[in-house]
Amino acid sequence: MSSSFAKTKLKTARDALGKKQFETARDAALQVLDYEPDNYNACAYFGFFHAPLDRRYYRKAIELKPDQILAWQGIAQLYEKSGRWDALSETLEHNMQMFAKSGDVTKCVEMLQKLILTRREHGTRQQVVSVLSYLLPDSPLSATLSSLPPPDPTNLTASSTFDIQAAIHNSLPITEEIISMIERDEESAVKNEFDKRRTRLGGPSPDQLKKDIGVEVWGSSRLPSLYQEVLNHPNTSDELRRSTESKLIMCKQKYFYALPTTSPEKVNIGKELDELVDGVVIIGVPDELSWSIFLEGKDTGTIDGYDLDHLRQYMKLLPATPLARLLEGYFLYTGTSLEEDEDEEDNKQHRQVVEDRDPFNTIIEGFGLLPSSLLATRIAAEVYLQELDYPSVINIAESGLELVRSHERNTGRKIGQVRKAFNVALASAFVHLYPPKHHPRALRLLDDILKLDPNNVDGLIGRGYVLQHTGKWKEAEALFTKATSLVPSGTQKSVRAKEESAWCLSKIQVEKGVQALKEVLNDLQGDEHDMDRARCLWRIGQGCWEMGGDFREEAFSHFVNSLKCDRTYAPAYTSLGIYYSEFADPPDPTRASKCFQKAFELDPREAGAAKRLAEGFADEREWDLVEVVARRTIDGEGGLDAGIQTQDGAVAGRYLPTNAWAWKAVGVVELMHRNYAQSIEAFQVALRAEPEDQLLWLRLGEAYSRAGRHAAALKALAKAHELDPDDWLCTFLIGEVQHQTGRLVEALLSFNSILDARPKEIGVLLSLARTQLNLAHQERLTGFSARSEQSFVAAIRTCFATSREDTGHGGVMWKIVADALFGLSKAAVFVDQSVVADVLDHTDSLLHGQASTRIAQIFSPRSATKHTPLTPRRVLEAAVAAYDYRITVGSTEDIALGSALFDLAVALYAWCAEAKGIIHENAPESAISLLKQALQKEPGSPIYWVALGNMYFLGKPKAAQHAYIKALEHDSKNVIAWANLGLLYLYHNDLELANEALLRAQVLDPDYTLAWVGQAMVAAANGHDADARGLLEHAVGLSADVPLADLEFASRVLTALSATTRPQSGVKEELLPAFFVLNRFAQRCPQNPCALHLLGLLCERLDQPEEGTQWISRAIALLEATYEESEDPLVERQFTIAHANLARLKLGLGDHTSALESFETVLGLLPEEDPSGDAESKILRVQALFGTGLAQFKLGDLQSAIDDLPECA
After folding, report:
1. Residue 943 falls within a domain, yes or no?
2. Does the pTM of the predicted model rise above 0.85?
3. What DSSP assignment string belongs to 123-184?
4. Same domain, yes or no, for 306 and 445?
5. What digits encode the pLDDT tens for the residues 857-869?
6. Percent of the chain as helix, strand, coil, to the nearest 5
7. Structurally, how many domains does the chain consist of?
8. Residues 279, 319 share a domain
9. Range of 570's domain?
10. Same structural domain for residues 206 and 352?
């Protein structure tokens, strides 16, 4: 098809489009594309018709002729209709560039206006800034846009490009808008990036992270150039110029501080910042930031080095700022003129207004608002140093040094003079704060200062003071002399250095020193030097005192003259007190004491006066006053923290006390008041000064012991013993600690070592007896019956040795004796009866005729003879009598009397249970009455309530429950109360409550045997026999303090295994633990026939028939004796069963004759055969008849066997 056809069809499409005949236009364009697919105009027209569905035709048209505007305009309309704003903006920007290139200014501006509108409505701040930047003078469109005529403000509608014309001919508003957007955008970017990075592991500190992010953001920031454009703009007002200049300086400062010190760019940025700041300062612009950078950056050694004129100018330009108020206060404090010309009336009025405020308070208030200002911190440190507030100086100077480090990190510039100034202030404070505690820290600072500046006057003076305290008078004198030569004569610092030099000289050559001090005194004229004159006169007096002889009267007059100059000068009172007490004739102790008191009242640092006062009060036994003096002396030397604490209140370090005697006194007083932690602390501090003081170590060990810190106590006492091995008191305290920690054998050795040299020491004898008693209890609980018996006897004999030496400890002695007897009474048999009988006879002889009326009607010990058998009941009777006598001879204080009544009640109740049938019917009630009396004396004792519950256990269950609950109210963690309460519930078949109580006891003390036994009984009651057996197995493995647990465990094991059909070898392994615990029980309770019988059966199962025969024979003997006394049918049946088992064992051993005798005994004891008789009797009869038949058969009596065996059927 020819090109004429395409042109005709395109003309048709264009005309139809103009007439809005879209179908005709579309068909014409389509015909062209069918024969000429690359026709630009056809693609553009067809893209218009298919725009809602597809933009491919526009893209194809653009690819064919990218410099033609038609397709670009079409696709822009497409993007606008579909809401694709980013694509629209890019297209508009392209169209704008095309119009600019073609020189069509109007179309270019229209595209720009539409682009700006689109970005404002649908773009981000960065996108808006990007398109607004086309209106700036440095825009690539600047040449095109500048051809626009100025806008006509009288006819706003005359041009469609009015806004662009206004922006081109006055770019200031657009620049300000761009600046505002970039500021917000950068602030947001820094914050968001910081939040994103701050939680990364191993990242930098928050401050460094902010700097790193700042370098990234501010390094490419357009703000500096934009600020400069505003500053250079002809339409910028003065106010806008000042604020913009401030923003530029802030922007430069932030970037300058953020750059690392190694960056070459940091130097250039710093120079640019300095130029801006210097310009502000030179022309006197009231910009706070610029002035702050200017002043903070100065490196000067004194406040005067900041140039007072600059400081005055700052106050004048920025009077409402905190720094201006602080400077005003400082000028007034130092007496410096606030204005250069004080004669002007306005200046006088201003000065009067400022002077109405307290200068010091003004400085402190201003400093509180300027925590990051180097200048404010320096002024505050200097003022506090003048006020002698050394702790504040230390805190402020340390803060200042941190600010110096921060400034140097930020700027990369060293400010050595400022650092030195803070170090001088810090060193001076350390020198004078509770000297000499901080002198080591002061010396390190002073050495650094003098190394950098050997002629630094403050450094020389400070080092001189430190050397004074160490007694290096010659070296100190040289430093003060050098300082005097460096300071202008007549100044306050010069006179003080001269005085200190003379004072040092007086310690070397007293006459020359006194003469030099007198010369200094001549320089101290005027009322403002009264305190200095008082000090100088006292020093002259001290020199005269050292010269001795008649000079001491002259010294007295100097001391008096010193007080005339300043009646509050404390050292003069101390010296007068020494004069009155040591030199006056006759001595005047009353006046001396008054002088010492006055000196100490004025200054607690007067340690000499304080110690003499304390010694005087101690001689008069005024201990409260001794404590007051000691504590005030400690406060005077700075206490524990030496005047420096960290922000959380913790002590900053360990300091050597200067008055160890005061700490000793406080330690002893706190020990007497039972404040052990404070006592330990005081002794520890005292030991820092006197580490070889043996008595101090001894007291520290005692305090540790009473505080329950036994390991530390032993270490301290070991050190005391090392310093003085012959101190028996130290050995005694070591023994006491060993006793408290359960190291009873070691404690016995310690006490015996003392008694070898001091056999009559009552306290040691009583401690030895108490240790022996506790050892006996421990041995009994662990199953060592013989050792336990020996220790009980040893405790009683030790007490009897005590009674021969002393009668003032009867209550304690008889308490130990009674406890030992009560412990002995729990033994079933005695290993060494003669020894036990001996101490029992001795006890009876001492208690003969000593019975009281408390229990006389219900208890009277039976008189014993040589033939009276030694039984546990007899020992228990002696224990009851001893407890009774203890009350007679013991203390009547409530606690002691309550304890004695409790012991008597428990022993009496135990005697009632042991001696049934022969006691008075009211004996148990009397025991309960005694226990109630004990509770009246000490109602808060859980032990007493538990004992009362035990006494009520069988007869009064509700009362018992109440008693156990009262015990738990006083001690909710009392494991005995919980266990006994559980057993009470178990006894009365409340299994659920029993289980809860016993479980609580187990939780409180997992090693408490009785709780496990109780749980086993609960399990058995619930029918859980396997669980019960497991619980009992655990219980018997804990300790031997519940013997019946052994018996119960063995019984259950034997019962369970008797019914098993497993092989004999496996059964034996399970029987061994039962045999072990039952054998242990038999040793502790050899008179229990049930246990002996059961042990015999266990031996039979373990293939030990000989031993089984022995155990059952012993059980039969005990049962026979018991039956003869009681004729109890139950005992008779047990006797019958034991004979049946014995006969079986003998039959197995081949002793057929003895077996036959036992079987016949069984048949003789069983009732006549009765078809309605009990099953047990029938079984026993069958076993006996069968055994008889077998025995007769083995003995050859076949006929008798034939006669007896059929009866088994």
Report:
1. no
2. no
3. S-HHHHHHHHGGGSTTSTTHHHHTTSPPP-TT-TTS-TTHHHHHHHH--HHHHHHHHHHHHH
4. no
5. 777 666 655 667 7
6. 75, 0, 25
7. 7
8. no
9. 524-588
10. no
